[in-house]
């Protein structure tokens, strides 16, 4: 978190003092330009993922359907249809499993930082915990192709969650004007090469990812505010909203070109819930919706608890790369197997409605002119299946089909989340909730099952991820009907309250499982009686204003104390406590040692160190082991006064334990050495 604070040292003040009012205006314009580029590139990536998934999924469907038709024709010529059903099922299961295993293998061979949705990692990054390699170009490339393989491979995943991570990586790269992975420096946006600025742009990238995924720019801003950054201001809100709007417009525009209707902006996001024309619901249905929220909270808590124990098992026994790839392949094969068993056992044959177009219909053993409902659900992409559950006419799915799908998909989705594949939990949660929500709608006579599917989807997603404000707006924007705003809000609030009673949200669980030192908004209920000095260690590792080079090297090389910041004190002795003068970061000391900024060398009139030297080394500062310091140089001294931050956060020793929201309340104070213990940690 110390990296996210502006280091207002003498170098910073000199640079700011030399900038003219026009220079500050140019910096502000550059921020808007960067946000526009973030939105544009995030929209392009979303469009690329969507088009490739659509093309490959259609190719896969045609191949598998052709195999099914050939098998059916062979069976009809030689034996009764049910007698050869086992052969038909086995033959096509093998064919589809080959596709699933192939794509599952590609999806599982990704980078570890590209696994999952990436939302927990971005949430940590925006709140002061820098997870290594989480916003690198390699992570983005693996994330994009991994999510394509995961979706096409038939895994119970969605491509919307990884879009948030992709947008954050785009923002981290564009805002720096260079790529450290490709070793290309465009010599632009050099002013923003620090974590303070980079954090704000990553917030914009995460919001742009939400906007591209759901066509919800306002929801993207609220997501970044609610789940992401703990640092916010009014201008940041406008820039993030601008990036979100550009993102959804870019996706919409290029999708219209691909669909052959240039300029017809009818696809705002990767998932389109469709228009809920009839937004009517009765007053007596609100308690039913609230009860559905409670059901979603219970199911979400069960999902999270089961996924927690499954992840614990993975950490203990499936930690090698080849085992992780094998598990991804097994998950893909198991998903194909379960789907074929359900399709073979189901006799839910439906006739398409007058205005209903089935994207990938499969007849199987149904009469001519009809299709197998559960086969249609499994062979569609998850986004199309969600839309069908929302809008297909009443009677399109019988209750047994919905129950079997809900039961099996619950465990498949739970198994899939946590694999080393790029996978989001948004769409599987929506699909799962829409299935049991429509089941409730079927059981209630004289009711529209579509609105119950919508409420079930909101309840299930809220019960798993525990989002309220942003998810309400996302759902309302995705449906295009504000009439459902109140019941959606009530459902999400109920699912969160009920779910929190049993277990934490899925993202918070995975943050803890990754051993990330994430600081919550509120301190534990029993910790308010503790003071800072009771929990901190001593002695404090600190430096004098003028310190020997050897001492600095020894402290930085100490592997048992990898502190990120060190207090600078004056009049420091072993017996008397010193007075805090400022704080200096490990990365600053590394750069000073690299450039040999020693007092004894000042007489040689070497070039004065500038902020540009620190920005050029950012973000991959060299390790202390790579810096050679001779024995003579160890006896030299370094004056840290010019480079330290004279206004660090400090906490008086009488103050209790603090949380993120408390840190901004305290300013520099002249406290004794005992009170530096909290500042060091």
How can the largest sheet be summarized? 3 strands, mixed
Secondary-structure-derived class: mainly alpha
Strand content: under 5%
Query: In whole angstroms, how far apart are the ends?
Result: 10 Å
Mean pLDDT: 80
Output the number of helix runs.
Answer: 25
- Total number of distinct structural domains: 3
Spatial ordering of strands, largest sheet: 5-7-8
Bulk shape: elongated
- The CATH homologous superfamily of the largest domain is termed Clc chloride channel
Total strand segments: 9
Q: Could you name the CATH topology of the largest domain?
A: Clc chloride channel
Second-tier CATH architecture of the largest domain:
Orthogonal Bundle
Give a description of the structure.
InterPro entries: CBS_dom, CBS_dom_sf, Cl-channel/antiporter, Cl-channel_core, ClC. Pfam families: CBS, Voltage_CLC. The chain crosses the membrane at residues 29-56, 140-158, 201-224, 236-258, 286-310, 322-343, 402-431, 452-476, 482-503. Residues 532-592 form the CBS domain. There is one protein chain. With 681 residues, the protein is mainly alpha-helical. It folds into 3 domains: 38-76 and 85-259, Clc chloride channel; 285-326 and 339-349 and 382-514, Clc chloride channel (Orthogonal Bundle), CATH 1.10.3080.10; 532-675, Roll (CBS-domain), CATH 3.10.580. Helix content is 57%, strand content 4%. The protein has 25 helices and 9 strands. The chain has helices spanning 10-18, 21-78, 85-108, 119-126, 137-152, 160-174, 195-214, 217-228, 234-258, 285-317, 321-345, 373-379, 382-391, 399-416, 426-443, 449-465, 469-479, 485-502, 506-513, 532-535, 549-557, 586-594, 611-617, 631-634, 676-680, and strands at residues 178-179, 184-185, 349-350, 371-372, 543-544, 546-548, 565-570, 579-585, 637-639. It has a 3-stranded mixed beta sheet with strand order 5-7-8. The longest helix has 58 residues, at 21-78. The N and C termini lie close together (10 Å). The relative contact order is 0.11. The model is unreliable at 79-95 and 660-681 (pLDDT under 50).
């Amino acid at each position: 978190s110390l990296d996210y604070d502006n280091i207002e040292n003498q170098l910073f003040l000199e640079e700011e003092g030399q900038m003219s009012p026009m220079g500050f205006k140019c910096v502000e314009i550059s921020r808007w330009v960067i946000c526009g580029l973030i939105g544009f590139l995030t929209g392009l990536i979303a469009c690329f993922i969507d088009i490739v998934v659509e093309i490959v999924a259609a190719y896969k469907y045609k191949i598998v359907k052709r195999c099914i038709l050939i098998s059916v024709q062979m069976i009809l010529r030689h034996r009764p249809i049910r007698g050869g059903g086992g052969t038909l099922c086995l033959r096509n299961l093998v064919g589809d499993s080959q596709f699933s295993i192939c794509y599952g293998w590609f999806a599982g061979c990704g980078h570890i930082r590209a696994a999952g949705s990436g939302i927990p990692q971005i949430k940590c990054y925006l709140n002061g915990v820098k997870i290594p390699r989480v916003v690198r170009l390699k992570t983005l490339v693996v994330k994009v192709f991994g999510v394509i393989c995961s979706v096409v491979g038939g895994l119970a995943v969605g491509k919307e969650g990884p879009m948030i991570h992709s947008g954050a990586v785009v923002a981290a790269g564009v805002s720096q004007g260079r790529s450290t992975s490709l070793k290309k420096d465009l010599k632009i946006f050099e002013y923003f090469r620090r974590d303070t600025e980079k954090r704000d742009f990553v917030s914009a990238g995460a919001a742009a990812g939400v906007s591209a995924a759901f066509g919800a720019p306002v929801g993207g801003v609220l997501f970044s505010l609610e789940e992401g950054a703990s640092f916010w201001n009014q201008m940041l809100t406008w820039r993030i909203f601008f990036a979100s709007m550009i993102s959804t417009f870019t996706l919409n525009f290029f999708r219209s070109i691909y669909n052959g209707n240039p300029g017809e902006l009818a696809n705002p996001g990767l998932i389109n819930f469709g228009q809920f024309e009839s937004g009517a619901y009765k007053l007596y249905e609100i308690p039913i919706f609230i009860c559905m929220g409670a059901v979603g909270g219970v199911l979400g808590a069960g999902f999270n608890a089961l996924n927690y124990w499954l992840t614990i098992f993975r950490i203990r026994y499936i930690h090698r790369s080849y085992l992780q790839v094998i598990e991804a392949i097994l998950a893909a094969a198991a998903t194909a197997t379960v789907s074929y068993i359900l399709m073979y056992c189901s006799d839910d044959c439906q006739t398409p409605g007058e205005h209903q177009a089935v994207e990938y219909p499969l007849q199987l053993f149904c009469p001519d002119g009809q299709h197998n409902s559960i086969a249609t659900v499994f062979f569609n992409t998850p986004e199309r299946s969600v839309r069908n559950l929302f809008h297909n006419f009443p009677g399109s799915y019988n209750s047994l089909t919905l129950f079997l799908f809900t039961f099996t998909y619950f465990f498949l989705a739970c198994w899939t989340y946590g694999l080393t594949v790029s996978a989001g939990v948004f769409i599987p949660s929506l699909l799962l909730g829409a299935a049991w929500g429509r089941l409730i709608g079927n059981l209630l006579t004289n009711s529209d099952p579509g609105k119950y599917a919508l409420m079930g989807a909101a309840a299930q997603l809220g019960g798993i991820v525990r989002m309220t404000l942003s998810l309400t707006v996302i759902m309302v924007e995705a449906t295009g009907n504000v009439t459902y705003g109140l019941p959606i809000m009530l459902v999400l609030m109920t699912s969160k309250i009920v779910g929190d009673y049993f277990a934490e949200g899925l993202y918070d669980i995975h943050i803890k499982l990754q051993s990330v030192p994430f600081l919550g908004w509120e301190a534990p209920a029993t910790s308010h009686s503790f003071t800072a000095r009771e929990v901190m260690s001593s002695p404090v590792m600190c430096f004098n204003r003028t310190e020997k080079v050897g001492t600095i090297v020894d402290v930085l090389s100490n592997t048992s104390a990898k502190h990120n910041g060190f207090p600078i004190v004056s009049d420091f002795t072993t017996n008397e406590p010193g007075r805090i003068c400022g704080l200096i970061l490990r990365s600053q000391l590394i750069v000073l040692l690299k450039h040999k900024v020693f007092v004894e060398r000042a007489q040689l009139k070497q070039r004065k160190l500038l902020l540009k030297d620190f920005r050029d080394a950012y973000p991959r500062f060299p390790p202390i082991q790579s810096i050679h310091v001779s024995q003579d140089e160890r006896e030299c001294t370094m004056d840290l006064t010019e480079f330290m931050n004279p206004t660090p956060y400090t906490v008086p020793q009488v103050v209790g334990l603090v949380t993120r929201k408390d840190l901004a309340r305290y300013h520099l104070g002249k406290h004794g050495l005992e009170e530096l213990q909290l500042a060091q940690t």
